[in-house]
Specification:
single chain, 69% helix, mainly alpha
Length: 137
């Protein structure tokens, strides 16, 4: 969650700079609103990840149990969606999903409602480069 907090701080700086530069008014309200949207979508994505994992999580079959294997799936991390080589990729996706999706949602809200522009994928990230340059200086 530390990385998510850092992303939230960068989003707050980004939204504040955008609100001040474009004179949208009530910059702190935009920052607070974007932070609430970020946390809400992050919470939803964490619950979504858990739902997917629980949906595809399977018990170890009875053949494994009779062969002297583990009796409880809670004691095994080899069953279910995240097993095997593909499970590593799925695990990485599940780790990044709660940070990436809220960022895109905040970027869309920023573009459509704060700046009142039409949706443009390249326009979602306007101002990020300038923000990082100003932080560096």
């Amino acid at each position: 969650m530390t990385f998510g907090g850092i992303i939230a701080i960068f989003i707050a700086i980004w939204i504040y700079r955008t609100a001040v530069e474009h004179k949208t008014g009530k910059a702190l309200y935009w920052v607070a609103g974007s932070f609430i949207v970020f946390l809400a979508v992050q919470f939803i994505m964490i619950k979504f990840n858990l739902m997917i994992i629980e949906t595809f999580d399977t018990d170890i079959n009875s053949d494994y149990d009779t062969a002297g294997g583990l009796k409880n799936r809670e004691n095994s991390d080899t069953a279910g969606l995240q097993s095997g080589a593909g499970g590593t990729l799925i695990g990485i996706i599940f780790e990044f999903l709660p940070w990436v999706v809220p960022f895109f949602v905040v970027a869309i809200v920023r573009q459509l409602y704060m700046l009142k522009q039409s949706f443009n994928f390249m326009g979602l990230f306007d101002g990020l480069k300038e923000m990082f340059i100003s932080i560096k200086d």
